[in-house]
Amino acid sequence: MDNAAFQKILATYEQDRFQNNHILEQRRQEVYQLIPEYREIEDSISAYSVGRIRQMLLTDSDEEASLQKADTSVHAQEIAKKRNQLQSLLKKHSLSPDYLDPIYTCPICRDTGYIDGREKCKCLKQKVAASLYAHSGLQELLETENFDHLSRAYYSGEDLVNFEKNYQHAMQFINNFSSDYRNLYFYGTVGTGKSFLSCCIAKELMDRGYQVIYYSAGQLFDKFTSYRFRQELIEDWEQTIFHCDLLIIDDLATESSSDYAKSKLFSLLNDRYVSRLSTIISSNVTLNELDEHYSERIFSRIISHYDLMKFTGPDIRIQKKRTANRK
Fold first, then answer.
1. Pick from 136, 305, 103: which is nearest to 214 by CA?
2. Residue 70 — pLDDT band, cuts 50, 70, 90?
3. Contact present, 131 and 240 (Cβ < 8 Å)
4. Quick check: 217 and 249 in contact, CB under 8 A?
5. What are the chain's domains?
6. Which is higher by pLDDT, 211 or 135?
7. Distance of CA 247 to CAs 90, 104, 183, 206, 269, Å?
8. How many other C-beta atoms are found inside a 10 Å radius of the C-beta of residue 16?
9. Does the model's pTM come out above 0.70?
10. 186: pLDDT confidence band, cut at 50, 70 and 90?
11. Most buried of the four, 122, 239, 290, 323, by CB within 10 Å?
């Protein structure tokens, strides 16, 4: 996730703190009107504490040490007594004893996003994940296209052995994502699990806080073409697809594309390779057909710098439809 997007998420915590403080202040004014003596006791606690601090400042260090030792328990008892009086007043007027305690949307991090100022709170991780999902192009798709829905029942024989090999390769890609730079090229006939496994990888990495962007090849090439003469739009868009942690391009070589769009594709793949940012490409065409569809430099870039993973087997989509129709 880029810094600008992350700062927007952190800004939501400031909004939460402002809103919760506003609610607390409204409650405080409500209590002051309902229970005038509540404020008097609060003021007496503050005056008592300030007076004690002043007394300590006016004594020398030795006297201060002895005074502090003797007075600590008395002070604590007096403050506790007054606070109990405050809680009793709230109860008497049918209000919760914690009615005027600080309000937090997340009590764990106290609306800062961090625990002890260092460790990311669970709520911050969830906000980051939600933002990544919203901008990935995969949010709805990943509700069903994830490892929880993976089934080997659609494969058998050599197809099953091959899928298991691809699955293990994908898991290595996920687990070593931050330390072992890799690109993946999934190819094979329609419906053999290429897009599904891409989505599974995407979900796992987004849940770990990585920025993943998904486009079908058709969508990607349409963007290149429509933004060609709109510099104000293409700069922000290219900033995202050129620099996200993982870019997924689905159904490559099935789109109609211009020479301009193909040249932009090469720039995209080459720039991400130079920056060591991973890309996953899936395609229904053979490697020979890919060579015929694109220029030699695009084909060479993929063959040389991607792990080639072939998918085999029957069309799973058709099998699912047949199973559904039998029910």
1. 136
2. very low
3. no
4. yes
5. 17-106 (no CATH), 137-326 (3.40.50.300)
6. 211
7. 57, 37, 10, 12, 10
8. 18
9. no
10. very high
11. 290
